[in-house]
């Protein structure tokens, strides 16, 4: 995910193609980051609800 989209953002910038860098690089990276953050929040909610991983 990160390497592929980072490379597209870099290539688009290097070749002076801001549209490619934005749509296929930066935007894709931001979309993936949002998905990862949502998954992390869901896992935290599940952990809190079940009490998993909590030790006294």
Furnish the topology, listing elements before pairings.
Blueprint: H1 2-14, H2 18-50
Helix pairs in contact: 1-2
Q: Any idea how many domains? A: 1
Count of β-strands: 0
String of helices and strands: HH
Strand content: under 5%
* Chain-averaged pLDDT: 83
> Radius of gyration over alpha carbons?
17 Å
Helix/strand/pairing class, anyone?
A: mainly alpha
Overall 3D geometry?
rod-shaped
Biggest pleated-sheet summary: none
Structure description:
The protein is mainly α. The protein has one domain. It is 82% helix and 0% strand. It contains 2 helices and no strands. Helix 1 (2-14) runs antiparallel to helix 2. The longest helix has 33 residues, at 18-50. The protein is rod-shaped and about 50 Å long. The N and C termini lie far apart (38 Å). The mean pLDDT is 83.
Features:
mainly alpha; 0% strand; 2 helices; 56 residues; rod-shaped
In short:
This protein has helices at 2-14, 18-50. With 56 residues, the chain is mainly alpha-helical.
